[in-house]
Amino acid sequence: MSQTLLETRGLTKRYGGLLVTDQVDLDIRPGELHAIIGPNGAGKTTLINQLSGELRADSGVIRFQGGDVGTLGIAQRARRGLLRSYQITAVFEEFTVRENVMLAAHGARRHGFSFLRSLLGQPDLAVIARKVIDEVGLAAIDGTLVGELAYGQRRQLELAMALAAEPRFLLLDEPMAGMSGQESAAVVALLQRLKGRYGILLVEHDMEAVFALADRITVLVYGRVMFCGTPEEIRRHPEVKAIYLGEEE
Ligand SMILES: Nc1ncnc2c1ncn2[C@@H]1O[C@H](COP(=O)(O)OP(=O)(O)OP(=O)(O)O)[C@@H](O)[C@H]1O
């Protein structure tokens, strides 16, 4: 148990007659970057939604740091450090990048969002914000209003806000979707740096990124775990090659 940070057993979700996740067992270790791959409609997003608390599983168990979190809501899981990047907190368009990251850091400290402006004078929040803004590579535009950011910069901001909330585990659903080649390369480099510090579950269609980053990969097909292994094992697995990687080529 101590070797597992996030664990699921028999996680099952159905929509009518459709089994979207079917008895999913996962064991993700501290500091591991674990990717979930699978064809369109395999149930990857539905799985993340169940882990974040957005969706309640029909049956099965979710344990985080040894405790059952399956009945907790999104905010309660986030407070324990299990969080999905864009759900951290609201993004305020009329505030700057730095101010938004400071507010995310403040939110993590469980206060309300009243008196927003006065909070922004707090030096400890400024220190945390500077650190994570540097980390995600937004330092040059930390004074820019969020409403003026390009799409890729906004996604980087979401990551900065997630980090400001001091997570233990990050759920990332296609963090590179819609980004330019340069922006996604920056996110790959960022995740390389973050790896080992947090548990990370990554759903991503960019296979090059997945194979470069993942410690282990779970292949989901029609809601079922087909195989779990290292990138090398996945590459060599004949069925995975035929069903999934072949399709990508
Ligand atoms: N709210 C819903 N009601 C009914 N069916 C749903 C609902 N949400 C998802 N589904 C179905 O569940 C299946 C899995 O969807 P999901 O989005 O989890 O797959 P995915 O692996 O993330 O797909 P993609 O790679 O295309 O993002 C699909 O067949 C989808 O149509």
UniProtKB/TrEMBL annotation:
Transport among keywords: yes
CDD domains, A to Z: ABC_Mj1267_LivG_branched (cd03219)
Gene3D superfamilies cross-referenced by the UniProt entry: P-loop containing nucleotide triphosphate hydrolases
Gene Ontology molecular function: ATP binding
Domain spans labelled ABC transporter: 6-247
Pfam families linked to this entry: ABC_tran, BCA_ABC_TP_C
Assigned keywords, A-Z: ATP-binding, Cell membrane, Membrane, Nucleotide-binding, Transport
PANTHER family: CONSERVED COMPONENT OF ABC TRANSPORTER FOR NATURAL AMINO ACIDS (PTHR45772:SF9), CONSERVED COMPONENT OF ABC TRANSPORTER FOR NATURAL AMINO ACIDS-RELATED (PTHR45772)
Name this polypeptide is given: Branched-chain amino acid transport system ATP-binding protein
